[in-house]
Write a structure and sequence with these properties.
Layout (H helix, E strand, L loop, with lengths): L9 H7 L7 E4 L6 H8 L5 E5 L15 E4 L6 H7 L5 E7 L4 H5 L25 H7 L2 H11 L5 H14 L5 H8 L8 H17 L1 H15 E11 L2 H13 L18 E3 L9 H6 L7 E7 L1
Parallel strand pairs: 1-2, 1-4, 2-3, 4-5
Antiparallel strand pairs: 5-7, 6-7
Helix pairs in contact: 1-2, 6-7, 6-9, 10-11
Length: 299
């Protein structure tokens, strides 16, 4: 099968998992199947279980007796594995980026490049849309989303502009959203600001931070000793959360030590410094430039 794109940091991620030919592995963000196909190449009698909440992702699944696809959000990781008789795993990979196909589909509303309905749901069968959030959230809650997930210094101004605009008529499309905040976005940095604005709404729509926390806690419980987890993040909000959890065992980044002075984390860092794409990879795939990979091993 021809994959429609090669994931960022593919080799670095799969090499870092230290695949055991007879192990059980989980790809919690199957997408186009890039990581899964590479893992399967390295398995003998092992097993690979892949999750993706987007039902369209199932079209990419391999025909392989060692492979199982589960059309669920990775927040349901542990329960689904138990249902299929799996209690422990050797490794897990999570690529937290939106797939190219989702970004490039004008009807999904993920990108400011297309005029479309404000949807942004990865699972189109459930949950609030971006339009629901933009039109119904209190202004203060919008401000918090833009501050926390978009890291905007002028989050209050953006939220206020949206509130003012929606009071005149509902904001239903990407174009209407952009127009409502245009006054507060510097022309010289328009694309960067819009990327962060859409990112913040997408994270809220899909509850990405909440579900990432859930998945990391579950993964910690089901990894065997010496099992590895690799996470690729594309913005500082998620990368900081993963960094703190791997390093300190909590999401707040608070170092706690045991009686002997050792940091109380369930992990050993495989790469103490975050792994970024090489200039050569970025030249081939500009979308990879913001990818950040962290790998940890269960103690």
């Amino acid at each position: 099968m021809m994959l429609y794109h090669v994931p960022a940091l593919l080799n670095e991620c799969i090499d870092g998992l230290n695949i055991q030919p007879d192990g059980i592995y989980v790809d919690v963000t199957f997408g186009g199947g890039g990581h899964s196909y590479e893992i399967l190449k390295r398995l003998d009698r092992g097993k690979l279980i892949a999750f993706d909440q987007d039902e369209n992702a199932e079209r990419n699944k391999p025909v392989d007796d060692r492979f199982l696809f589960i059309n669920q959000n990775f927040r349901f990781l542990r329960n689904n594995l138990r249902y299929h008789g799996v209690e422990k795993i050797n490794g897990l990979v999570a690529d937290l980026g939106v797939s190219f196909r989702q970004f490039d589909d004008p009807g999904r509303g993920f990108s400011y490049r297309f005029e479309s309905d404000l949807d942004m749901r990865m699972n189109q069968a459930a949950g609030k849309t971006a339009a629901d959030i933009v039109n119904n959230y209190p202004e203060e809650r919008l401000r918090k989303i833009f501050r926390d997930y978009g890291e905007f210094r002028n989050a209050g101004a953006l939220a206020g502009a949206i509130a003012a605009s929606r009071s005149e008529s509902p904001i239903r499309t990407t174009g209407q959203l952009i127009e409502s905040v245009r006054e507060y976005i510097p022309e010289r940095a328009m694309n960067k600001y819009l990327s962060r604005l859409f990112q913040a709404l997408r994270i809220e729509v899909n509850r990405e931070v909440e579900f990432l926390r859930d998945m990391l806690l579950q993964a910690t419980d089901i990894l065997i000793k010496g099992g590895r987890i690799g996470v690729i993040a594309y913005h500082s909000v998620e990368d900081r959360l993963v960094k703190n959890f791997f390093r300190y065992g909590n999401f707040e980044g608070q170092e706690r030590k045991d009686f002997y002075g050792n940091t109380e984390s369930p992990f050993i860092l495989v790469n103490r410094k975050v792994i970024s794409p090489s200039p050569e990879e970025v030249s081939r795939n500009k979308r990879a430039r913001s990818a950040r990979l962290r790998i940890a091993e269960k103690k």
